[in-house]
Amino acid sequence: MAVSLAESPLSTDRGLLRFDDLASVDPDQMTGRWRGSGLHTRHPLDGLLEWLNWYGKSFESPEIVHPLLFLRRNGDILSIDLARLPLHWALCRPMLARSRAARKLFAVSRYLLRSSGATARLRKIEHRGVASAAIVYDRQPIIDYLRRIDDDRVVGLMDMRSMPQPFFFLLARDGFERAGCCCELSVGCPSGPDREAEVVEASVIPGGPDEHP
Prior knowledge:
- The chain has helices at 12-21, 48-51, 87-92, 94-97, 100-113, and strands at residues 32-39, 54-61, 64-71, 77-79, 120-127, 130-137, 142-150, 153-160, 167-173, 204-205.
- The chain is an alpha+beta fold.
- It has one domain (12-205): Lipocalin (Beta Barrel).
- The protein has a ten-stranded mixed β-sheet.
- Strand 3 (64-71) and strand 4 (77-79) form a beta hairpin.
- The longest helix has 14 residues, at 100-113.
- It starts with 11 loop residues before the first helix and ends in an 8-residue tail after the last strand.
């Protein structure tokens, strides 16, 4: 049975059905920078990354992956180390994690949360009967399994030890969503008032001063 991603929010079961319908993607096909947005399934993390101004992910090679990019007000893109974020706290207290106070705290502490380099790798791993590209985090018990919608869009399923419900997200290759193509999924395009700065030419910043939260 085909399940449309346009149903938002999806149930976890229907999200898994849609995920299983998608084709595999090779790690080499992921090279480049991708904009991210959540696919809501009533997960505790739904909307949290967007609230914190998540940009997406960057794949320089299978060995050099920046899985958490955030957009600064000056248009630069900052790479954050997920191991330095209180993820378990966010899962237990999702409403507090989405508060204005938490957002402000994240903005002013990003200097301390920056990664000093790549924090994940790409590997081809079998999951739910299909071998496909997956993001393996270096210091967290997390794997993001990826499936292909088309050449410029993939769906991700974040699987973390002790997290019973998977977290779904969409990645659109940089530049693709500017034509409005990702909006047909009705899952929250990676855009909004905090993303109005032009960032096409911005580079990933694993370090450096963060004067503008």
